[in-house]
Structure formats: structure tokens, C-alpha cells
């Protein structure tokens, strides 16, 4: 199985390590949900790139704040490409959404360059066209 590197803020990494310690200290035999969460956190922590910004090269990848435009609409949406759930609690003060690189949108955009148009399929089966307007490292995003 190939392990995927994940990007985490230092705060999210610390929070996950604290959660893991708490789960391990109160672990009871046969608690399948707890065991699954422990494995999930161990995998995230073991494969984390913590707080290191990707290069500021305009290429969409985890740790980048992406601005996109859908279907040639003039409105844009800005979000962090990161680990959903691990980052959300730490980014609430920034008022920014987090989209997973493994989501349909994240998968479509990963590797895209500024101005590049990509498409992805939504659960209804429709295809959505999206253009990458900008991609900047998280630490360069306003308010970060």
C-alpha cells in the first residue's frame, strides 16, 4: 500500500498527537471505533508534512490556499487544500474551508497551474469545470 503524504499545520499536528495520547490512555479492549480512530491518527501523524509550505510556484498541492472559478462564473471560491477534520478546528478564525486532496475537486486540481482548467464529476454524475485562479502557500494567505 502506498502511503500518501499529508500537509498539516503545527496546531493540527499537535492536536492530533494529544488526541492519540488520550485515546491510548483510555483504551478498552473491543472498542472498534476507538481502535479505528487510533489507526487513522497514527497514519496521519506518520505521514505528515508539518507546517512546511510547499513552493510558491502557483501549482495546486496540499498546503496551498487555492482560489478557483467554476464554469466561467465571475465568482471565485478560496479554500485550503489539506486534511479535512484535522485542520478545520485550527482554521476557524480564518473563515476558510478545507477541501481534502482526495475529494473529487481536490483530485482534479492537484498539480494544476494558475489559469489551468480542470473538470471533475460530482455525486449526481454531472461534470463540473473549474479554473485555478491562484495557488499560494498557506502561510502567505491573508490572515494566516
TrEMBL record:
InterPro entries: GreA/GreB_C_sf, Tscrpt_elong_fac_GreA/B_C. It comes from the Bacteria. Residues 58-133 form the Transcription elongation factor GreA/GreB C-terminal domain. GO terms for biological process: regulation of DNA-templated transcription elongation. Keywords: Elongation factor, Protein biosynthesis. Pfam families: GreA_GreB. The keyword Protein biosynthesis applies. GO terms for molecular function: DNA binding; RNA polymerase binding; translation elongation factor activity. This is Transcription elongation factor GreAB.
